[in-house]
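sorry for the late reply, my laptop died twice this morning and i had to redo everyting from scratch. anyway the thing you sent over, i finally got around to it. pasting the sequence first so we're on the same page, its 150 residues, then the predicted structure underneath. double check i copied it right bc i was rushing
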Amino acid sequence: MKETGHDIGKAAVSYFTCGFNCAESVTKALCEELGMGRDDVVKMATPFGSGIAGKGHLCGAVTGAMISLGLCRGRVTLKEDRGSCNKVSGRFIDEFMTEFHSVSCRDIIGVDLQTDEGRKQQREHLRYEKCYPVVKFAAERMYSLIRSSR
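ok and here's the structure:
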């Protein structure tokens, strides 16, 4: 039986709980569910965790969702249209912003991951309080948008 959008969120959070970063978790869950479960795609997401290399920039869950979308709807030739991919990515960002008010990891979790204290807070409680809902939302929402845009 195929997973539903709700189950894909659980899968993404499960990967996150096991130690994959936010970008890897979202990418892994989406690619597996959409029939693109290739390890090299998850490897591409590795440097994007915690706002790109732990710098707190673009949220890794957003990046993981975009990597998966590109794999599904991206183009490989200049003759292909990128409009449908851009439409889905724009809608995803709008909905993500409505839910979390930012696409910046630092803004979402409220600490600087470049400091010892910020990393400690993220490990001890922000990972659960802030990151789990973000990872779940990104996987579920992108899955729904990809499925509805076919």
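Helices lie at 5-18, 22-33, 39-45, 60-73, 83-100, 105-109, 116-148.
thats about all i looked at so far, will dig more tmrw
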